[in-house]
Amino acid sequence: MTLAWLDHPSFALHETGAGHPERPGRHDATAQALAEAPFADRVTRYDAPKATREQLERVHDPRYVEHIHVGAPRSGLVQLDADTVMGPHSLDAALHAAGAVVKAVDLVLSAEVSSAFCNVRPPGHHAERTRAMGFCLFANVAVGAAHALEAHGLARVAIIDFDVHHGNGTQDAFEGDERVLFCSSFQHPFYPFSGGDTPPGQIRNVPLPAGTSGAAYRAAVESAWREPLDAFRPELVMFSAGFDGHAEDTIASFALVEDDFAWVTRMVKEVADAHCDGRIVSALEGGYALEALGRSVVAHVGSLIA
Ligand SMILES: [Zn+2]
Q1: Quick one: pLDDT at residue 198?
Q2: What is the mean pLDDT of residues 57-86?
């Protein structure tokens, strides 16, 4: 079966201002890398629809969803927090980004495709129930997971977040919810300064020091995630796929390379193959060194499709 590539023109129009790392060029870099990848003939492109208010309100407070809808400027930029910005196209992009993950869940659960990659921006994993944060407006992957649970009636969804920053928004959405196993690896102490203490239950945080190498990363996540993932027996596996832990990415200080992203993808795919026919939905989070980002997305998606 093929892999679905979810995308939308609005993702390249979401402006964040001069010098901002989460910039429109990220989208062009990933789209070009995917189009030129050796597996491109096994990828089917789908247009991302907008998420509905009902879908967003499964993980966000209705007042917050309204705040983002009315907060979009007609021109110029508005600042939602110290580093999260909205321009005239940002609401559109944010709605299509969350909608991409919802659509990807539908495609994978209907077996139309075996797996899906959502080439979205803005990213989502820092957005909490009631606030925008860290370049993120809506919690894209959490919205998709909630759709799998509520609209498709799934009982167990695993979310793997290998972005270099802790996925505080996803944890905020599902902490205490036994239907979701959330595994997040991240540099610590580092932005957003959460996740250092793993709460009991279905949260498997792996805080790692600055300078973490590929070998150290692999050993840590293998021992922290493999057994809980197998014991959980997920019906769907989702990735918050952030590539800002790459050695060439100066936003953080991990020393990972594209092979490490391919490795974690294969490790998790083995779990998905064993428990849920390889059903995987992945969505782009961070990654700010454009060449490394393109190569890393190809390594990750290539491992999904293999
Ligand atoms: Zn990040």
Answers
A1: 75
A2: 96
Could you give the CA distance from residue 288 to residue 144 in angstroms, rounded to a whole number? Answer: 24
Express as a percent the part of the chain with pLDDT over 70: 99
Look at residues 301, 303, 302, 306 and name the one whose alpha carbon lies nearest to residue 117: 301
Domain range for 122 is 3-305
Band (306; pLDDT cuts 50, 70, 90): confident
- Between the CA of 141 and the centroid of ligand 1 the distance, in Å, is 14
Distance of CA 85 to the CA centre of its chain: 19
Residues whose Cβ atom is located within 5 A of ion ligand 1: 163, 165, 242, 244, 286
Give the alpha-carbon dihedral of 174, 176, 182, 186, to 10 degrees: 90
CA of 16 to the centre of ligand 1 (A): 16
Query: What is the CA(84)–ligand 1 centre distance, in A?
Result: 13
Q: How many domains does the chain have?
A: 1
Pick the catalytic residue from 125, 126, 147, 300: 126
Which CATH number characterizes residue 141's domain? 3.40.800.20
Other CB atoms within 10 Å distance of the CB of residue 255: 17
The answer to whether 126 is a known catalytic residue is yes
Rounded to an integer, the average pLDDT of 39-67 is 98
pTM for the full predicted model: 0.98
More confident residue, 90 or 199: 90
pLDDT of residue 10: 98
Rounded to whole angstroms, the Cα distance separating 162 from 238 reads 11
Task: Say whether pLDDT at 241 is over 90.
Answer: yes
CA of 306 to the centre of ligand 1 (A): 26
251 CA → ligand 1 middle, Å: 8
